[in-house]
Design goal:
The chain is an alpha/beta fold and 227 residues long. It contains nine helices and eight strands.
């Protein structure tokens, strides 16, 4: 059966990963969460005092890139692949608000993007893949058969993220999460290297008022059209 590449871009907390996981499970495709890869690099940088609220040792991080080994490993109990950094499972560590604050700074660095884009393109060379991020439609897979661009209001996205963090037991305020969402939007859309933009041929989906089920069925029909 024909396999295609599904590329999903969009703002933070628009449910890109949730949708991508649903599609991959339904189609028997490989799912790659590129955001987790950037979060893993940010986590490494934090652990090695290369980034903080007040500083970024860009040269230091670039020099450390050969020491950063990333891979996804399927957790069959959970039904999805988890992020490993240098053979350590860091899935829980990279989902914190602290890492969220640093990830856009790290993702601005061209050398970091080049390293991760190369890995992402290698993962998708045989098609049958669903990948989400910020530059998948524009840089990683510009020839993808289906391109989606996800958006929603900043307050809607902040509420989703806030609920998710509280459910995980993290102590955050809504205002803190909203500020983080808006700050990431600004950095992602204004960086020099591969800024977040909607590809000309991407289908925009504003899911501010869509349920996960409604969104999934809408996109699955788009997939079927291309198959």
């Amino acid at each position: 059966m024909k396999k295609i590449t599904i590329a999903i871009d969009g703002f933070s907390s628009t449910g890109k990963s949730t949708l991508a996981k649903q599609l991959a499970a339904a189609l028997g495709y490989v799912y790659v969460d590129t955001g987790a890869m950037y979060r893993a690099v940010a986590y490494y940088a934090m652990q090695h005092d290369l980034v903080s609220e007040t500083h970024l040792d860009k040269a230091g991080l670039i020099s450390q890139l050969p020491n950063i080994n990333l891979r996804f490993q399927l957790n069959s109990d959970l039904g999805f692949a988890e992020m490993y950094l240098n053979n350590e499972n860091i899935e829980a560590q990279i989902r914190t608000i602290e890492v969220s604050r640093m990830v856009s700074k790290v993702a601005e660095i061209s050398e970091v993007r080049a390293k991760l884009v190369e890995q992402q393109q290698e993962m998708g060379k045989d098609k049958g893949i669903v990948m989400d991020g910020r530059d998948i439609c524009t840089v990683v897979f510009p020839d993808a058969e289906l391109k989606l661009f996800m958006t929603a209001s900043s307050k809607t996205r902040a509420q989703r993220r806030f609920d998710e963090l509280v459910e995980k037991g993290q102590h955050v305020t809504f205002e803190e999460v909203l500020h983080n969402v808006e700050e990431r939007d600004y950095i992602d859309t204004h960086r020099e290297d591969s800024p977040l933009v909607k590809a000309d041929d991407a289908i925009e989906i504003d899911n501010s008022t869509l349920s996960k089920k409604e969104q999934f069925e809408l996109v699955l029909n788009l997939v079927k059209e291309r198959l």
